[in-house]
Design goal:
Length: about 180
Amino acid sequence: MASSAGASGPNFRLLNRKLHRWGSIAVALPFLVVITTGLLLQLKKQLAWVQPPEQRTPNTVPMLSMDRILEVARSVPEAQVSDWSHIDRLDVRPGKGIVKVAAKNHWELQLDLASGELLQSAYRRSDLIEQLHDGSWFHDAAKLWVFLPSAVVVLGLWVTGLYLFLLPFRARAAKRRGAAS
C-alpha cells in the first residue's frame, strides 16, 4: 500500500496544516502584544486613558516664546521638566490653538498657543503603547529578531489559512466536474 506522501514528495495539505499549527504557536505571544496594543491605538482618540483629549482655543496664531513654554512646563511637577533635555517634543496645532509639550516621562502638557495658559496636564500612554506595538520598547534587537519574523510568520499564516479555507471549495468544484463527466 502506498504512503500518503507518494513518489512526488510530502502531502502539501498535511505540510500546510502543520506549518499553520506550529507557526501560530511560534508567534502567539508577540502577536498577542501586537493585537492588544493595536486595538488600544485604534481607540486612542476615544480613550483618554491612552491619549489625553486635545483641547481647543480660538487662538490660531502662535504667539508663545520658547522661554514661556519652558517656564510653564517647569511649573508642572508631574512633568519633571527642569530644562529642555527633559522635553521629548513640541507639537504645535495652530488649527486647535494649542501646543503640546511631551515630556520624556510621557507626561503631556497642552498650552494655549497665544497666552501660554496651561489647559491640560495628563499622562500620555500612546507613545509607550506604540513602542510595545512595534517591539522597540523591549529592545531594538527584539523589534528586528522577534517582531519582524513574527510578522512574516503571520503573513504566512494568512496565506496558509486562506488556502485551508478555499480547499473545500476547490474539492467540491472538482467533485462536481467529475460527476458531470
